[in-house]
Design a protein that fits this description.
This protein is of the alpha/beta class. It has one domain: NAD(P)-binding Rossmann-like Domain (Rossmann fold, 3-Layer(aba) Sandwich), CATH 3.40.50.720. Strand 1, helix 1 and strand 2 form a beta-alpha-beta unit. Helix 2 runs parallel beside helix 4. The longest helix has 20 residues. The chain is elongated and about 60 Å long.
Length: about 150
């Protein structure tokens, strides 16, 4: 089981390294017949997120909670996100399935539609205001519920 990244399709050092690791595992399958699971994760959010490291959502949450400005250079830039609990559910399901075949599986996890950075920032401000006003924000969709 290998946690790769959607960046594996990008022509940059990180993307090339992820793709190279995937290819090594595929070659291992060719030589040995071992079952290989490749997961290409998008940007993850949820518990255990590290602000100012690898998660724009964790960084935004950290800054919003401390009344720090959210620095967004392009609020229309979109990101593809997956909630960490959905990722863990997919991994556990795979382990529980006890698959015995000898193949390379490229697995997907539930991802949310691309969302603009500005929209994430707006939602966090709504959440923050709801704490002050003692109201519950509208949680109409899965992403908003998981972000909350």
């Amino acid at each position: 089981m290998f946690a790769s990244s959607i960046q594996a399709t990008q022509d940059n050092p990180y993307g090339r390294s992820k793709l190279a690791a995937e290819n090594i595992l595929k070659q291992e399958h060719e030589k040995t017949g071992r079952t290989i699971y490749l997961f290409r994760f998008p940007n993850l959010f949820g518990k255990w997120g590290r602000p100012n490291y690898n998660s724009v959502v964790a960084t935004f949450c950290y800054r919003a909670a401390r009344d720090l400005p959210l620095e967004i250079y392009d609020p229309t830039r979109t990101v593809q996100l997956a909630y960490i609990d959905d990722v863990l559910d997919a991994l556990v399901h795979l382990l529980d399935a006890n698959v015995k075949t000898h193949a390379v599986f490229e697995e997907d996890v539930a991802v949310h539609p691309p969302i603009e950075l500005g929209r994430i920032a707006d939602l966090l401000q709504v959440f923050k205001e709801s704490r002050r006003s003692l109201t519950v924000p509208q949680l109409d969709d899965a992403f908003t519920k998981q972000l909350y």
